[in-house]
Design a protein that fits this description.
The chain has about 190 residues and is mainly beta. The strands form 4 sheets. The chain has a 6-stranded mixed beta sheet with strand order 1-11-10-13-6-15, with no helix packed on it. It has a 5-stranded antiparallel beta sheet with strand order 2-12-9-14-5. Strands 3-4 form a two-stranded antiparallel ribbon. A hairpin with a 2-residue loop joins strand 3 and strand 4.
């Protein structure tokens, strides 16, 4: 096994990004956070199952984590790095909306059958670059508040957290130790 798994920069297959519609007048601003007729979402075949908002303090990171599917519905790829790459996934997709603050978002495609396998894609998003991002199942992702104030992120995942009635397991793998396996370091990766 190499010391680090090779990473390419590029665009993640099946990830979708767009700038939400912004309307502004003398009272302030309004941003459409969800429309069932949105062309980008229709093309991605994405419909939310729920939504939530989270606030992150400056300097803090949420992730790296991945949604491969409920246990038994995904399969790790053989070889190294063991337990980090996927042969099969059937999990939730996230749809993050960055409207506030300043965030850095990183996506890493760990799906060995994906045309963008091994690709790292990054975005800076927030109040100065309002962005919505659909993260495919099997793609490791994290975002960090790189601004100077507490900021919020909206998420519209396409699966219910812990399933109907919150009775299922959590569709998420968290790996504080994912980074040592790949040839990028979160703190120094730059566009």
């Amino acid at each position: 096994m190499p010391d680090k798994y090779p990473v390419k920069r590029g665009v993640i297959h099946d990830a979708a990004t767009w700038r939400p519609a912004l309307f502004e007048d003398d009272r302030g601003q309004l941003v459409e956070t969800w429309r069932a007729d949105d062309e980008v979402l229709a093309k991605a075949g994405f419909r939310p199952a729920m939504s939530y908002v989270s606030w992150t303090l400056p300097g803090f990171t949420r992730g790296f984590h991945v949604h491969p599917g409920p246990e038994g519905s995904y399969r790790f790829a053989p070889g190294e790095p063991r337990g980090k790459l996927f042969e099969q996934v059937a999990g939730q997709r996230d749809c993050f909306l960055f409207l506030d603050g300043t965030y850095r978002l990183a996506l890493f495609d760990a799906r060995v059958s994906s045309p963008s396998f091994g690709v790292l894609q990054q975005f800076f998003a927030g109040e100065h670059n309002r962005l919505a991002v659909v993260v495919p199942s099997g793609v490791w992702h994290a975002y960090k508040n790189v601004g100077e104030k507490r900021a919020f992120v909206l998420n519209f995942p396409d699966a219910l957290y812990r399933g109907e009635g919150r009775r299922a397991g959590v569709d998420e793998l968290r790996e504080g130790n994912v980074l040592p396996f790949f040839d990028f370091a979160w703190e120094i990766v730059a566009d």
